[in-house]
Design brief:
A hairpin with a 5-residue loop joins β8 and β9. This protein has a domain of about 190 residues: PDZ domain (Pdz3 Domain), CATH 2.30.42.10. The protein has nine helices and eleven strands. It is elongated and about 80 Å long. The longest helix has about 40 residues. By secondary structure, it is an alpha+beta fold.
Length: about 375
């Protein structure tokens, strides 16, 4: 029984991670698919997974211009490796003449929407999930609830009721963002901008290193209580999270996690302090983190586990949407750059040159992923 329990404790989070990854990739590819259909582009294949085909379903949509030797209907396929997917459109990799449903024959704006559609759908999924999670579970605001006597926050003049708006000129509304600024402060003095009774004030506060090797200033935020949060009997001093406020905080959360990779890259290049755990991870590394989080949170019950897994789904969706917009060859961002260049020079770059750039970028990307995966496996071992 102990062996079975141990196997399940490892197998279940791995299956959950595969499910999360499948949902996020499915939503991304559906973004491309729906935008392509809306633009009148013929989709040759909509695939989930990579590698050999396991199942193939023939759709009803036929191509307006049939090509000899091709299926000429949209194929929906499930492939062997559950690590990705793709939406293959006619005329995307090669020039197809005299076909009104070919990608290369559509207007520039339509093609931009088709390429960006995957990331846009990832952000929509994240907005829905984060809004629901914040409304149900609540969130920490940027308003000060309690100041620890003798700590830097009190010494710097921070008071209960102050609303923190900026740290070192960077806007702060999320508690996660506040903690990030503390963790990367290196113990240096921070310019904390607050609003107190409608007046903007600047406070100089220097974090101190605590026993758990983290930087703190000694304050706690006001928490908005979620819809499913149990309130102790007789406790009346609380505020519930509202639907509108939850949606607003979901946008703040997504914006924070979109900016995070850029900020971390900037700190890395400037050789500034980095938060623990920052760095590039492969699917193996992310899966290991999901497993670790699951094994820790499952001890607290089903509801916390479900909420945490949904939160991870939203985070991975933002990560996938953001990463795909990076101007890296073989990713959507690089294709958008080529379309931008086409719009500026009023004519497309030759498919041969663009294809070569994407091919070289794809090879480099695969090599990088293998190196990162090897590092993650070594760390696990």
């Amino acid at each position: 029984m102990i062996i079975i329990a141990g196997i399940l404790n490892t197998a279940i989070p791995i299956l959950i991670f595969i499910l999360i990854l499948g949902i996020v990739v499915l939503v991304h590819e559906l973004g491309h698919f729906f935008m392509a259909r809306r633009a009148g582009i013929f989709v040759e294949e909509f695939a989930m997974g990579m590698g050999p085909k396991l199942f193939t379903f023939r759709g009803k949509k036929r191509a307006a211009v049939e090509i000899e030797g091709e299926e000429n209907v949209t194929l929906y396929t499930i492939r062997a490796l559950p690590i990705g997917g793709f939406c293959k459109m006619r005329g995307m990799e090669e020039n197809v003449t005299d076909d009104p449903e070919a990608f290369n024959n559509k207007g520039l704006f339509s093609r931009v929407l088709v390429i960006a559609g995957g990331s846009l759908m990832n952000f929509v999924l994240a907005i829905v999930l984060f809004s629901a999670l914040i409304f149900m579970a609540g969130y920490n605001s940027s308003v000060v609830d309690f100041v620890v006597p003798g700590m830097p926050a009190e010494q710097g003049g921070l008071m209960q009721g102050d609303r923190v708006t900026h740290i070192n000129g960077s806007r702060v509304r999320l508690w996660d963002n506040f903690m990030f600024m503390l963790e990367t402060s290196g113990g240096q003095e921070m310019d904390v901008r607050v609003v107190r009774n409608g007046e903007v004030m600047h406070l100089a506060i220097t974090p101190v290193r605590t026993a758990d090797d983290t930087f703190r200033i000694g304050m706690s935020p006001v928490r908005r209580v979620g819809a499913i949060t149990e309130i102790p009997e007789g406790f009346t001093d609380y505020q519930r999270a509202t639907i509108i406020g939850s949606v607003g905080m979901s946008f703040e959360t997504i914006g924070y996690y979109i900016r995070m990779p850029i900020r971390l890259l900037g700190r890395f290049l400037a050789r500034e302090p980095m938060p623990d755990g920052a760095g590039v991870q492969s699917i193996i590394g992310i899966g290991a983190q999901v497993t670790e989080v699951y094994q820790e949170v499952v001890q607290h019950g089903i509801m916390p586990t479900v909420l945490t897994m949904l939160s991870l789904t939203a985070l991975i969706s933002v990560a996938l949407g953001t990463t795909n917009l990076f101007p890296i060859p073989a990713l959507d961002g690089a294709r958008l750059v080529f379309l931008l260049i086409e719009g500026i020079r009023r004519k497309p770059i030759s498919r041969e040159r663009e294809g070569m750039v994407h091919f070289v970028g794809f090879v480099v990307l695969i090599v990088l992923l293998v190196v990162v995966a090897y590092r993650d496996i070594t760390n696990l071992l």
